[in-house]
Design a protein that fits this description.
The structure is a homodimer. The first copy, chain A, is α/β, with parallel strands linked by helices and about 190 residues long. Helices cover about 40% and strands about 15% of the residues of chain A. The first copy, chain A, has a single domain, classed as Cytidine Deaminase, domain 2, CATH 3.40.140. In chain A, strands 3-2-4-5-6 form a five-stranded mixed β-sheet. The first copy, chain A, is globular. The two termini of chain A are about 30 Å apart. Strand 1 of chain A pairs antiparallel with strand 1 of chain B.
């Protein structure tokens, strides 16, 4: 029988771990949430060592995501993808910047892989904050970031998506190292 | 309140339109299904002009996908992504080639965009059949394929994913032209 539906879920702990009315005024506090989510996801063994969060222009939290690939049997369920989908679902917009042009920000604990890079282009976020670099991910874990355009930052910037890197990089690296040290598998 | 779940659905007509035990021995018949799905999706106005299907090594149909971006308010819900997720959900594997190394084939009516290109890398398919080219999509519709690595075919082939292009290209182009002619919007 053909499957016609997919149901993707974040772990139940997010409701305890995240204050839904959170406002993060600066980029560092936005990233701190993304990294904290990545750490809890490892501690609770609910997925890979990656977290993400989307904020409105005023810094209000819109959605969160963590990696859910193995628990959900779904290669699409990266942290950034979960954050994009839950934000769009909440706002009922297939692009976050549709209509009103608000500048939503995605904070992600590690550089987006080839899939999440592409998804970022269509998501409607206007700012991308990155913690650990691809080389950190590949140095500290066995995860692979996949093939990106040579000038991936330029490609995003030319499409109106501002990119800021190395925010909380050391804290993000710690979570990656912790995942590897506790025997977390890469896939 | 934070959204912690996303529910993605294919249109109900797929159960009437697709024989679940279908076996497609050759690449042309696999692609014919993907293109037929893209056409029905336009006719029924259930999404954009893109269809996809995944087959096992023996040619047995495993999953289908059509573009559902606007109806589901979800920029992730491209035809290929829906096919990857429903196949992985059905087989309960986060990579289709996990364990037994079977060579699953994705047939997609148009060249994967930057998001679906990256998702293909993690999906576990070993063969990629493409109908219309990116330049067909951009010539006939206002859809944008997004930034890809310069040698995207080589990147896939180096990761063990065989790429065949221009299968049913004219039939796939017809659906794109029909979508544009009936006032279908691009996004």
């Amino acid at each position: 029988m053909l499957y016609a539906q997919v149901h993707l879920t974040l772990p139940p702990w997010i409701h305890q771990a995240v204050e839904p009315d959170l406002v993060c005024a600066d980029d560092e506090s936005k990233m701190a949430l993304a990294i904290r989510l990545s750490r809890i996801n490892v501690d609770r063994r609910t997925g890979g060592p990656f977290g993400a969060a989307i904020f409105s222009e005023t810094g209000r939290l819109v959605s969160v995501g963590v990696n859910r690939v193995v628990p959900l049997s779904c290669s699409v369920a990266h942290a950034e993808m979960m954050a994009f989908m839950t934000a769009q679902h909440r706002l009922q917009r297939f692009r976050l910047d549709l209509d009103d042009g608000h500048a939503f920000t995605l904070a992600t604990s590690s550089q987006p892989c080839c899939q999440c890079f592409g998804a970022t282009v269509w998501s409607g976020v206007r700012r991308l904050l990155i913690g650990a670099r691809a080389e950190d991910v590949e140095e500290l874990t066995e995860f692979d970031e996949g093939p990106l355009p040579a000038d991936w930052v330029g490609e995003l910037e030319r499409r109106g998506i501002e990119v800021r890197r190395d925010i909380g990089r050391e804290a993000a690296r710690e979570v990656l190292a912790m995942y590897a040290a506790t025997g977390g598998t890469a896939y």
